[in-house]
Amino acid sequence: MPAQAKVAKVEARTSQPASPPLTERQEARRRRILHASAQLASRGGFDAVQMREVAESSQVALGTLYRYFPSKIHLLVATMQDQLEHMHGTLRKKPPQGQTAAERVAETLMRAFRALQREPHLADAMVRALTFADRSVSPEVDQVSRQTTVIILDAMGLENPTPEQLSAVRVIEHTWHSALITWLSGRASIAQVKIDIETVCRLIDLTDPTASGKPS
Amino acid sequence: MPAQAKVAKVEARTSQPASPPLTERQEARRRRILHASAQLASRGGFDAVQMREVAESSQVALGTLYRYFPSKIHLLVATMQDQLEHMHGTLRKKPPQGQTAAERVAETLMRAFRALQREPHLADAMVRALTFADRSVSPEVDQVSRQTTVIILDAMGLENPTPEQLSAVRVIEHTWHSALITWLSGRASIAQVKIDIETVCRLIDLTDPTASGKPS
DNA sequence: CGCTAATCTAGAACAAGTTTCAGACTTGAT
DNA sequence: ATCAAGTCTGAAACTTGTTCTAGATTAGCG
Predict the structure, then answer these.
(1) Distance (Å) from CA A136 to C1' C17?
(2) Which long-range contacts (CB under 8 A, 24 or more apart) does A78-81 make?
(3) Helix (H) or strand (E) holding B51
(4) Between chains, do B138 and A187 touch, taking CB under 8 Å as contact?
């Protein structure tokens, strides 16, 4: 253990205000917790992420777990942030190939969907937490939402979206979340989710100011 | 239609298979429970609906409450079914006035939204339960979804929707639920919900086979 | 190094959803 | 009217999220 404690302050959180800069050991604890959370979630979904188990798995006292993440929902939303970062990185490497913005967005979302299908339990835990979150988790949920927006705008290839386009993006996110839920709860098939995503993505063409399709 | 309705068993549940026909006293219990649930929800939302309190409020033992509704989520989803019936009745009386199908659907949803705004806590309890529901509640959630679909198709004035239109309706429902959630958790304003609803309703025109706007 | 504040730990305690059980009450059929 | 089966009640127990506490550790500082 080199005594150079000054170098610490890992502060790499993606675009997060980083209220209190964490020491190395704290950052390590945080990672262990998130890892344990994702692992338990992958096993059995939302219910399998039990706070006592997360604490034990990550070698941290229950009280400490709650100091890092003030509730199970906070923990799972943070887990989602974490996974979203991964995903964004992965997506960046291979940008979608579609001709139109609508196609590219649909392709991107379907790619993300396929990733979720590989870990359906994890998806369950994260999405349920996200939609169940109450006001006390708003900042974190909002961060997830912003990150998702960035991914979609990326796929659209837009620098300066119009308010109309932003609204379309919001609607796409709504559809994305809700379609995932219907899939996770077994009320919609994978095919149906695909159709819904493709359907809602048509809104993009409708709000494209460079195209002809805008009546109002 | 089979006019064999002379049976005394109350069995008025809207289009529900009515597995076991309930006696009068049982129907009365069921009503008391749903009433207590709605009342507590109106006070303090999801968290305020505590099973022990519902049981006491409706003069029923805890075990009995669980026999009628096997979980808090089941109870709240049933409460939503109940409220949706009300709403559908109300909406039927004054059909929306818009010129286009899109306008009428948007108007209908905004009317429903205004009703929810009058009881935001109740809305919170019902919508949170709906999106948090897992597979064990699928049939009930599906019933709510079907009822919502009927309301939207009603507003569109359609008898035989195309698969494309059904997909658009599903997307509208997705947006409706998810937009409600963002509003309830304080991440979107009422105005924003309105915009999103209007935006997604444009999909209806896009999928109207009698109109010109359908490129593909 | 030695001090102080902050953080961490183990564990008990509490809250609300859910389950269980013995006994009392209803219902439906004979 | 009577009996068996099914239902309801009251209360305790169990589960898991959350809070609290007292004492050990760690971090930052002079």
Answers:
(1) 21
(2) A78/A34, A78/A37, A78/A140, A79/A34, A79/A37, A79/A38, A79/A41, A79/A125, A79/A126, A79/A129, A80/A126, A80/A127, A80/A129, A80/A130, A80/A144, A81/A14, A81/A140, A81/A143, A81/A144, A81/A147
(3) helix B51-57
(4) yes
- CA B73 to chain A, closest CA, distance in angstroms equals 12
Q: What angle do CA A165, A171, A173 make, to 5 degrees?
A: 105
The answer to whether strand D lies under 7 Å from the CB of residue B61 is yes
Chain A residues with CB under 8 Å of B131 CB are: 128, 131-132, 178, 181
Burial of residue B17 (number of CB atoms within 10 Å: 0-12, 13-18, 19+): exposed
Q: Are A195 and A182 in contact (CB under 8 A)?
A: no
Q: What count of residues does chain B have?
A: 216
DSSP 8-state class, residue B80: H
Q: Which residue from A123, A105, A85, A127 is spatially nearest to A207, judged by alpha carbons?
A: A105
Nearest to B111 by CA among B21, B50, B176, B59: B176
Do B199 and A134 make contact, defined as CB atoms within 8 angstroms? Answer: no
Give the nearest nucleotide to B23, CA to C1': C27
pLDDT in tens, A114-140: 999 999 999 999 999 999 999 999 999
Confidence label for B93 from pLDDT (cuts 50, 70 and 90): very high
Q: How far is the CA of B62 from the C1' of D10 (A)?
A: 9
Does residue A48 reach within 7 angstroms of strand D, measured from its CB? no
Tell me how far apart the alpha carbons of residues B199 and A214 are, in angstroms, rounded to a whole number. Answer: 12
| Interior/surface letters B38-62, b for 16+ CB within 10 angstroms, e for the rest | bbbbbeebbeebeeeebbebbebee
Tokens representing A148?
A: 């998702």
Return mean pLDDT, chain B: 89
Contact A54, A39 (CB under 8 A): no
- Joined together, the tokens standing for residue A98 give 């579609």
User: Distance, angstroms, CA A6 to C1' C1?
Assistant: 20
Q: Is the pLDDT of residue A185 over 70?
A: yes
pLDDT tens track for B97-122: 999 999 999 999 999 999 999 999 99
Can you tell me the distance from the alpha carbon of A59 to that of A141, in angstroms, rounded to the nearest whole number? Answer: 27
Q: Touching check for B206 and chain A: CB below 8 Å?
A: yes
Residue of A100, A165, A172, A178 best to disrupt the B interface, most CBs of B under 10 A: A178
Which residue shows structure tokens 């064999």?
Answer: B4
C-alpha–C-alpha distance, residues A89 and A65, integer Å: 28
